[in-house]
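Sample A.
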Amino acid sequence: MNQSETYQKARGRAEAKYKFFIHAIVYGVVIGFLVLINLINWDGYFWAIWPMLGWGMAVALHAARVFLAADKDAIIDALTEDELNRS
């Protein structure tokens, strides 16, 4: 793998992490406002839990894709290099 390809892969991973952080911040802000609205208009039912759980699952899946799948690529790249060196 040449330096340009290595840079492009690293940049792609960095962009994926940046997009996740933006997603997590937007989630926190919006859910915070929903909880605030729910508490201001309290009628005995905490309805904000539903968007919190639904969108929270999406954020969790996004995190898994960004942080766990990136490790898979590194492992596959290392195994590929090892196989190429054996040839």
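Sample B, a different protein:
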Amino acid sequence: MDLFGPDPDASGSGDAPAGAPDPSARGDEGPGPASGRDAPLAERLRPQALEDIVGQDDLIAPGRPLRQALETDRVPSMILWGPPGSGKTTLARLAARLTRAQFISFSAVLSGIKEIKDVMRAAERYRGAAGRRTILFVDEIHRFNRAQQDAFLPYVEQGTIVLIGATTENPSFEVNAALLSRCTVYVLRALEDREIVTLLRRALSDPRGLGDLRVTAGDDELLYLASLSGGDARRALNVLEIVTTTTAPGGDGSRPLRREAIAAAVQRAPLLYDKAGEEHYNLISALHKSLRNSDADAALYWLLRMLESGEDPLYVARRMVRFASEDVGNADPQALSVALAARDAFDFLGMPEGALALAQAAVYLACAPKSTAVYEAYGRVQADLRRGLADPVPLALRNAPTGLMKGLGYGRGYQYAHDFEEGTTGLECLPERLRGRRYYVPAPIGHEKEIALRMKELEEIRRRLRQRSGGPKEVKG
């Protein structure tokens, strides 16, 4: 079940001939409507025509490619990717209603390779007998493994079936490349609040919905309910049904829709999240980039969004420790200590108290001066090493614990920095080919301004010492 109201008659072509797939025989959900009053409100109000769909104009507005394909009976195999309650099942069933194909609904949760092959063979027989294709709708197609997805390939390629897969997960990650290349991907968006309000108004007036309950609802209450639905039309309609059917009618027989009743039914707004899926990476990226942009409010929002969605807080803490080195660096050396302390505090306190330490660290990191100088220096060294610049350690820097090693010149020319008033020496510490190379270039911000001045001072001291003749006696390493 996905959106709105009664299911359409799938094929519009009368009884299937012998050999056609029989959804009811397998217990699969066929295209027939669940139109009784005991069906959920969202099911009773499922659109029966493209014009009834609210939202998704980018896909089904007049002249758009998907609409043209539906209206001309040239429906391609496709993947419908979108959040819950955005209309994926509705579009799939309308595709069957508007075309001459047979419709079969298939559950990725309940079906295996054997069931897939049985359905494919039946679809072949149906095509041979009736000359028509079968639209196979696979809900949650991302739950199929690689072998199961591969079972569809020859039948999609031959045109025996039109595969319509629905998924809330990024198909780039969850659908095999071979199958994905044979399907058109259509992206559905979460519905906007105003669009959900339109659906709620329709539900309150439609006789198939709640039209006989005489519900009175103001715009503010409907907008409040829409705002708590997370763009999920099904969720909004389900909450509306719960609230209205459990509200006793007043003396005049009407049922007022009240904000407090909505809040009690919703409990909390849904947070779309998958710790192993795309939304996980979207949110951690949003947190990282908000910290980098020094936006403390946004950083707090994305941090709490992840924690409230069930993300592992220690994963977030590790990412902030990394951020302290990668993006703050020596512009504020204290940032790394703050991030590590937040991790330790959470490890000690746990949820929910420890979350405040993470929030404190997020604000600190967002407001800290930023520098990627160390990160960039690290990359420059890596690049030199990958180019083969891995020369032997200069003799002066080598340890000489044995007479043989001393005889070979190990440690010869080493100068002990603490013997020098300046605290440094003119000793060259890089291999000869790399002398003069500058990897670390401090940014002119925060503490790195002081580091830059100190590095400049040390460079001048070492230059003078190299020019000076003599120097302290060689010290054993």
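Observation for Sample B: The radius of gyration is 33 Å.
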